[in-house]
Design a protein that fits this description.
Blueprint (H helix, E strand, L loop, with lengths): L48 H20 L9 E5 L3 H12 L3 E6 L5 H7 L3 E4 L3 H6 L4 E6 L14 E9 L11 H7 L2 E4 L5 H14 L12
């Protein structure tokens, strides 16, 4: 059995969370917490603790769909990353470390140099018709991190035949899209949430091996 069990104010389930089953979990804000080994990750020694936590969020969010859609199996792909923010930059780094070409996709060219510094091979401006045309049919997998309302039809032409668009951002309004690309190019639209224990350990180990760290700013707590 699998599923989510929150460390704070969660329901004690799956037989692995100790304590009174009638009480919620209290692990989120405590100085220490005893948990079943099933829920524990090993943080490699060469990952600084201040950057380890974001890997457990942005890192696994981007890694899990890469794993699900074949990008960890050793054959080279072209991965599109829509939205070059906290999730997107981590996705670029991970996809590059896995040996893929990466197309960074943004609404303007303002982040082109930054995306290249993270490992992006190509840069597509989604508001520029010529840029979209130049990158048409290029991506085997697109990870879409946009959480604002947007038009999926803008990005679907970037998929290669049989390509997949994976939704990661939480846009609140329903999407509308044309069925023609899905039918004639056998493309697909899917989604991904975060990732389980084994995949999270995999991305930690990958980040340790390639020294892939989130871009973090450390501040002193008052």
């Amino acid at each position: 059995m699998s599923g989510k069990c929150g460390t704070y104010n969660g329901v004690r389930k799956y037989g692995r969370v100790p304590g009174n089953k009638d009480l919620p979990t209290y692990g989120g804000y405590t100085a220490s917490n005893v948990v079943h080994q099933h829920f524990v990750f090993k943080i490699p020694e060469n990952i600084p603790l201040e950057v380890a936590a974001p890997i457990l969020c942005a890192g696994i969010t981007m890694y899990d769909p890469l794993k699900q859609w074949g990008a960890t199996k050793g054959h080279k792909m072209v991965i599109g990353i829509v939205g070059i923010g906290g999730l997107g930059t981590m996705g670029i780094k991970i996809a590059k470390a896995l040996g893929h070409d990466v197309v960074a996709i943004s609404t303007s060219a303002a982040k082109k140099e930054m995306a290249a510094s993270k490992g992006a091979t190509h840069f597509c401006v989604s508001t520029d018709a010529e840029s979209l045309k130049a990158h048409a049919g290029m991506c085997n997998l697109i990870l879409n991190t946009i959480s604002a309302d947007h038009d999926l039809n803008t990005y679907m032409p970037l998929l290669a035949k049989g390509g997949v668009m994976c939704e990661l951002g939480l846009s609140m309004k329903p999407h509308t899209f044309s069925q023609l690309p899905l039918i004639f190019n056998r493309t697909a639209i899917t989604g991904s949430n975060i990732g389980g224990i084994p995949a999270t350990q995999e991305v930690l180990d990958l980040c340790a091996k390639h020294q892939i760290f989130p871009d973090c700013q450390t501040i002193k707590a008052s």
